[in-house]
Amino acid sequence: MATPAQDNSFALKKHPVLPTGKPCVVCILDGFGENKHKDEFNAVHSARTPNVDKLRANAERCRFVQAHGTWVGLPSDDDMGNSEVGHNAIGSGKVYKQGASLVDAALESGDLFKGEGFTYVKSAFPTNTLHLIGLLSNGGVHARYEQLKQLMQGSFEAGAKKMRLHILTDGRDVPDGSSIEFVGQLEKDLEQLRAKGCDALIASGGGRMNVTMDRYEADWGIVERGWKAHVLGEAPHKFESALEAVTELRKLPKANDQYLEPFVIVDASGSSVGPIQDNDAVVLFNYRSDRMVEISKAFEYEDFKAFDRVRYPKGLKFAGMLQYDGDLKLPAKYLVPPPFIEKTSGEYMVKNGMNIFACSETQKFGHVTFFWNGNRSGYFDEKRETYVEIPSDKCPFNEKPDMKTKEITEAGIAALKSGRYDLLRINFASPDMVGHTGSLEATIRACETCDECLGQLLEEVDKLGGVYLVCSDHGNADDMVQRNKKTGQPLTDADGKNMALTSHTLAPVMVAVGGAGLAPSVKMREDLPKAGIASITATFINLCGYEAPSDYEPTLIKT
CA 494, 444, 361 angle in degrees (round to 5)? Predict the structure, then answer.
């Protein structure tokens, strides 16, 4: 267990009341919000969750905190939180300006077009094509349409004579079916650029969960389909316009925006209008990192073996909107510098002699490691940290809504029983990932399985005299239907069916503390009514027996 700190700049003071030496479990129920709409469409509310209910019932040790907007560094409180900014906040104890805010500021000031990254990309403009690849959406989680529009206009003004757009339809952070509206708007904006003399066209595309935007190396086939469409100009579906493409592909059985099949746009002769060629410029315009890392590797690494690229364009001027992995320096060129997150809780803990266990399945493994550690790959101290990834199923998650919750629980319990760890970070992915499918029934099942497994995990904590903190990172499963913004009533489509909500919500999230090893005097503070999830960090540091760094957001507990 813990031994004294070796680096005085990271030294933590012992807590005056709470002891060290007791195992502390931080369990994140991903996407498990506390929504004001407590009806049948709230999977968290509708699910049978006796263990969560017991935590909620103890008002002295349970409260709710904000997990969206400015509480997690996003531009406005209309912005939904997400797992990346959420785990940044929980891991670092601070609120940093995040991707969307950074890009907005760089575009507004014009600094984006003056920076090293754009200057590098711009060198291709006189003789070659600028390719823009990313999510066509205004959901605000991965990308924003207004940012894309400003990037296109700024690139044109900087000398881009030929542009090709490679679009990934959303249907997850925005309503399913909205792809038609977004493509229609993009076509109008490209028409305006063409009127000014820029050869600007949509060249390829597909659904975000089927083309290009894989994460954590869960399915490289997704990236390969994107490579073939964007770079090689090859796809099973060919159309003469993108609007026709999304309209027709949505008619296929079980089709939706998230899973649209890959397509390319062709000219009258049947040739692709925009394959990526030698010496072209390529910009990934998503600001969120997780689903841009793999495609970045495909563009950046000459020695790339995840799939056969067939053709690797030479002399590319490749850049990301942000640098998506700071440790890998990936990509090497980027348009907007990422937030500088230092002295995260994980680094403090290992430098104070604590041993850490972090576990989730593939879909959220990066969140309890990379994002938790401040967008940093690898370990702070490999001797003191154990990271366990449970491979996720490769299927739509509503088909197997338990996902790997049971396996994660088994791994967590084994780690507890080993007696090796001071802090155990565990993420149950299913409320969020199943919630994104729009299946209410499957999401209820996911929430119930999480609750059952949470009960098993906390039972083991109690047996070992440990302590725990149960929380979430943002809302999602707590509302599964689109609603009238004024009345809150569910919206229906032309056939009278309820319109599924697949995005995150603005709901606050639960924070509950407990465990057989927790002093009876520990209660939630009452003087922080507007606390956000960054205050979770100081709270679990206290539970481990230490006072939190003075520049962290304040702890939620009093002793």
Answer: 115
